[in-house]
Every structure is written in structure tokens, then in C-alpha cells.
Amino acid sequence: MPSSEKQDRPESLLTVVIAFAANLLVAVAKTVASLISGSASMTAEAAHSWADTGNEIFLLVAERRGAKKRDRKHPLGYGRETYIWSMFAAFGLFTAGAVVSIWHGVTELGETGPAEDVVLNYVVLGIAFLLEGTSFLQAYRQAHGAATKRRVPVLRHVLQSSNPTLRAVFAEDAAALIGLVIAFLGVLLHQLTGLAVFDAIGSIAVGLLLGVVAIVLIERNRRFLVGEATSPELEDAVLTELLRRDEVERVTYLHLEFVGPSRVFLVAAVDLTGNELEDHVAVRLRRVEASLEESQYIEEAVLTLSIPGDASLVARRDGEVPATVRDGTVEDVAAGGAGTLRTE
After folding, report:
1. Taking each helix axis from N to C terminus, what angle separates 164-193 and 40-66, rounded to the nearest 10 degrees?
2. Strand ranges (DSSP E) for the chain?
3. Would the pLDDT of 213 be above 60?
4. DSSP sequence for 175-207
């Protein structure tokens, strides 16, 4: 395994571990504060943090199971398990976070009375903001590095990335920081006005925020599981990688499909240079396949011969390939799922 891939997975694992530790500490603190103060917003935030803590366990499982080597039963590897377990985490965020928060807020709408133990709530919210911020900075640092290489905004990279654990931690931590601001406003308005309805509304708002984030995460994982069109950037990169090889004269068909974070299944029809006998051509094809599979991002490559009359594929970006592709880090280049590159 290339060194760059060895470095990428530990970084994702570190991101998840930091998020787990931060969420666990925050969940305990919020629970204590909610029990003492009875604040609906704090209760919603406690449910949010416990949901995030449980989700990190799913993401740790996703990292571990998705990293398993391919075998006879799974010739394309176990990478898709990462999307399945990440989807479990997203469902957990929706049910244990969004539903509980909204339900609790609705039940508290009719409550009256002044705010109690607001100082404790503010202290806990402040500590939670620091811990959640630390976790978010780690996720942001990882995402920013890859986004900078791709020359795209960080948010776009996170949404497109084939790494579901990075996307989940980034989205959950961002939602956590926004949720803390909402909870703070709910507690503050309750204190200033004496109307408990603001606290209840804060709980409902936190729940709606978590629901939106969960639906986005579920949808992105679903797309990677069922397949979606790869980006032109990635298709150009792989096409150029094929054409730069001395053995390949032209490419007439190219299919790419993500089978895990930063891992693709490649199928191509190529025309080899020269005009050799069939058995010699078969050996050359296998040699090209083996060389392609040495790349960190190609799980398996399957090549077949082009039909003479088929049109040649051409890169849509004048053959220019980003340096990150030449270095073999396709995760820095594109996201996407399944797709076929076609002639212009």
C-alpha cells in the first residue's frame, strides 16, 4: 500500500477518535446541566451529543471494516461497508437526535416559569463549544488540505468526498456548534423574558437542524451505494493516466465506480500499440492492468480490446491533469460514484 494511503486512513481515524472523546465529555456535561436546570434546549443538546457519541462508534466500525483487504468472497474489497455503517450513524443522528429534540420541545411548549440555574447552562455551553470546536478544527484541517489540492471550496469537497467518515464528523461537529448557539439563545431569551416558550423553541430548532444534517448524510451515502456519475475531473485524470502509458494507443470506453473511500473499480476498452498476436496482446493487457492496480486508488482494473470502428475518448480539459492526480491521490481530485466517460 502506498505511503499516502497509509497516511490518509490514520488521519480519518484520528478525526473520528477526537470527535468521540469530545462528544462523550460534552454529552455527560449537558446531561447533568439539563437534569439540574430542566432546560428544554439543554435536554435537546444532551440528546444531540449522546447521538453524536453513538454515531462515532458506528464510524469507528466503518473505518475498521472498510479497511479490510479484498478476498475471494469480496473481490472488490470491503470499502462499501464504510458507507453502510456511516448510514447507520446518520439514521442514529436522525432518530436519537432530531426526533427526541423535536418531541421534547413540543412537550415543553406549554411550560411556564422563570429560567433556573442559567449560570450552569452557560458554563456547560461554553465548555461544550470549546470541545466541539476542537473536534471540528481537526475535521476542517483534514478537509481543507484535500480541498486546497483540488482547488475547490471546503464545503464542496466535504459534500463530494468519497470519504463518508470525514463528511459525517465535519457535518455533525458543524451542526453541534450551530446547535450550541441556538441553545444559548433559547436559554438567554427564557432568562430575559421569563417565557419558557423560547427554551422549547430552541429545542425544536436544534431537532430540525439535526434532521436536515441527517437527511443530507443519508442521501450522500445512498448515492455512493447505488452509484452516481463521476466528475469530469476524475474521468479526465484516469483517461490521461491510461493514455500516457506507452502500451496504450487510444481508449474507447471508460467506466469508473467508487467501491470505497478513495478506491475505484476501473473498466476500459483500449487499443494497444503495435499489431501482435492474440496471446501476446493478452499478456500486455494483463501487464497494464497490474500496473494500474499498483495505484493506491484503483482497487481493480479490467481492460479489454477496442473495436476498430469505435470512437476514441478525449479529455474534456485539454489533457491537463492536476498534480494531485499525477501523485496518485484521486481523493483530492473528485468524488462521484459510478459513471461512464463518453465521447464528446
Report:
1. 170
2. 248-260, 263-272, 298-305, 339-341
3. yes
4. HHHHHHHHHHHHHHHHHHH--THHHHHHHHHHH
Do 41 and 203 meet the contact criterion of CB atoms below 8 Å apart?
A: yes
Q: 162: closest CA among 74, 253, 260, 51?
A: 260
Q: Containing H/E element for 19?
A: helix 3-37
Kindly tell me the sign of the dihedral angle through the C-alpha atoms of 53, 55, 59, 60. Answer: positive
Evaluate whether 250 touches 284 at the Cβ level (below 8 Å). no
Distance CA(37)–CA(23), nearest Å, equals 20
Alpha carbon separation from 79 to 96, 147, 176 (Å, rounded): 26, 22, 28
Identify which of 91, 101, 83 has the alpha carbon closest to the alpha carbon of residue 43.
Answer: 101
| pLDDT surpasses 80 at 185 | yes
User: DSSP of 141-171, one letter per residue?
Assistant: HHHHHHHHHHTS-HHHHHHH-S-HHHHHHHH
CA 17 to each of CA 41, 58, 95, 184, 234: distance values in angstroms, whole numbers, following the listed order: 26, 11, 22, 27, 30
Mean pLDDT within 105-112? 77
pLDDT per residue over 263-298, tens digit each? 888 999 999 887 776 667 888 899 989 888 888 788
Q: What percentage of the chain exceeds 90 in pLDDT?
A: 10
> Each residue of 123-176: pLDDT tens digit?
888 988 998 898 899 889 888 888 887 778 888 888 888 888 889 889 988 998
* SS3 state of residue 126: helix
Q: Give just the sign of the alpha carbon dihedral 123, 129, 135, 141.
A: negative
**For residue 328, which amino acid is it?**
G
Instruction: Calculate ∠ Cα 46-96-207, nearest 5°.
Output: 70
What is the DSSP annotation of 251-278? EEEEEEEEEETTEEEEEEEEEESS---H
Tell me if 41 sits within 8 A of 48, measured CB to CB. Answer: no
Amino acid at position 186, single letter: G
What was the pLDDT predicted at 327?
41
Q: How far apart are the first and last CA of the chain?
A: 35
CB 74 within 8 A of CB 169: no
